[in-house]
Amino acid sequence: MDLSGKKILLGLTGGIACYKSAEFARAMIKEGATVQVVMTDGAKEFITPLTMQALTGHTVYSNQWDDQPDNKMPHIDLTRQADAVVIAPCTANFMSKLANGLGDDLLSTLCLARPAHIPFIVAPAMNAEMWKKPATQRNLNQIKEDGALVMGPASGFQACGEIGDGRMLEPAQMLEEVIAALQPKVLKNRRILITAGPTFEPIDPVRGITNRSSGKMGYAIARAAREAGASVTLISGPTALDTPYHVNRVDVMTAIEMRDAVMSHISHQDIFISVAAVADWRVANASDQKIKKNKNGDTPTLEFTENPDILASIAALPDPPYCVGFAAESEKLRQHAEEKRRKKGIPLLVGNIGHETFGKDDNTLILFDDTGTLELPHGSKQLLARQLIEQIAKRL
Ligand SMILES: Cc1cc2nc3c(=O)[nH]c(=O)nc-3n(C[C@H](O)[C@H](O)[C@H](O)COP(=O)(O)O)c2cc1C
């Protein structure tokens, strides 16, 4: 679980998006977090403390004068054990308080009194006109400058009936942001290019040859890299996966398209990770029209031509980024993977057994570099992706 053992202080202020915060709290609990809720009086007009208390299993605090857990001072004590303070939804009014250091209720005073090292995450939610106001934008800039991580807002249809910026992010996106905020920033300010998924090589306009790669490993690495603070571009073959939050995704179909996309994005990258299962061959005699059955029962003959080796071309550039390859083998992993690393001239190669992991949510990885091998034991692809990013950061 991504928030195992983490203590999150969740503050709710008086916006209509409070209804989403019930689901958000549950999502964090499902990931292993303990969630302590504090609500403004405004928030209590939108959702009852009872709901939040029942969902989180903890007393909800709201009043700085009356609420005194264990005879202590709630504005000081509630954040002392917290791993993060998250305000969702955050009203325009509360943003103004944060920007100006006001402490006129429990939640705003608690934000002032929180220890400086704790991640402070704010999810604005308001009507589009409120969001656009120069005062709100000034407050936004001030809050960011003061170190808050602002998530969203999203754009779209609003509860007031208007369309524009100001919607609070969905609970799943906010969950991803909180998880990311708690990861070590080992790739801060780094740029990283990742390929993922299979390629699709056409036979004719309606058929093609592909492979069983789902893209899950590459997408997990893209997510882990952005959690670690990198700016991530993901060049993806056809997959059914959602783009990880804050990752710039470029969709391609064929190996040639993937090569072209990699080449056009490679400059200024610090790291290139080739996770995609790129087809070794494409159909040389692909048809412009759908190939029809013929009455004699003749079957079409396909001819193949070799696809470019994207990873080897990047590794051979005059000033290449740090290159990491993936080898999906079906046997003799250790032998084939080390051979592949040397042939491609790359510092780090990650081996896995293709047919045991394609499409699955877990994997086992073996890292090969000049010093030897390192096994990352069986685990979820997301966990392994974070471990791999840590290993790459150590080698830069
Ligand atoms: C029905 C209704 C919906 C509201 N929705 C929002 C909202 O989404 N965002 C916001 O900034 N203010 C919203 N407001 C205004 C705030 O509730 C108001 O500014 C309040 O003083 C905020 O108090 P708080 O920041 O202490 O919670 C809404 C008010 C009403 C009556």
From TrEMBL:
Residues 1-191 are annotated as: Phosphopantothenoylcysteine decarboxylase. Its cofactor is FMN; Mg(2+). It catalyses: (R)-4'-phosphopantothenate + L-cysteine + CTP = N-[(R)-4-phosphopantothenoyl]-L-cysteine + CMP + diphosphate + H(+); N-[(R)-4-phosphopantothenoyl]-L-cysteine + H(+) = (R)-4'-phosphopantetheine + CO2. Residues 187-394 form the DNA/pantothenate metabolism flavoprotein C-terminal domain. The keyword Isomerase does not apply. CTP binds at residues 280, 290, 308-311, 326, 340, 344. InterPro entries: CoaB-like_sf (IPR035929), CoaBC (IPR005252), DNA/pantothenate-metab_flavo_C (IPR007085), Flavin_trans-like (IPR036551), Flavoprotein (IPR003382). GO terms for biological process: coenzyme A biosynthetic process; pantothenate catabolic process. Residues 192-396 are annotated as: Phosphopantothenate--cysteine ligase. Signal peptide: none annotated. The keyword NAD does not apply. Residues 6-181 form the Flavoprotein domain. Its EC number is 4.1.1.36, 6.3.2.5. Pathway: Cofactor biosynthesis; coenzyme A biosynthesis; CoA from (R)-pantothenate: step 2/5; Cofactor biosynthesis; coenzyme A biosynthesis; CoA from (R)-pantothenate: step 3/5. One of its GO terms (molecular function) is phosphopantothenoylcysteine decarboxylase activity. Keywords: Decarboxylase, Flavoprotein, FMN, Ligase, Lyase, Magnesium, Metal-binding, Multifunctional enzyme. Binds 1 FMN per subunit. The active site is at residue 160. One of its GO terms (cellular component) is phosphopantothenoylcysteine decarboxylase complex. PANTHER family: HOMO-OLIGOMERIC FLAVIN CONTAINING CYS DECARBOXYLASE FAMILY, PHOSPHOPANTOTHENOYLCYSTEINE DECARBOXYLASE. Catalyzes two sequential steps in the biosynthesis of coenzyme A. In the first step cysteine is conjugated to 4'-phosphopantothenate to form 4-phosphopantothenoylcysteine. In the second step the latter compound is decarboxylated to form 4'-phosphopantotheine. Catalyzes two steps in the biosynthesis of coenzyme A. In the first step cysteine is conjugated to 4'-phosphopantothenate to form 4-phosphopantothenoylcysteine, in the latter compound is decarboxylated to form 4'-phosphopantotheine. NCBIfam families: coaBC_dfp. HAMAP family: CoaBC. In the C-terminal section; belongs to the PPC synthetase family. In the N-terminal section; belongs to the HFCD (homo-oligomeric flavin containing Cys decarboxylase) superfamily. This is Coenzyme A biosynthesis bifunctional protein CoaBC. The gene is coaBC.
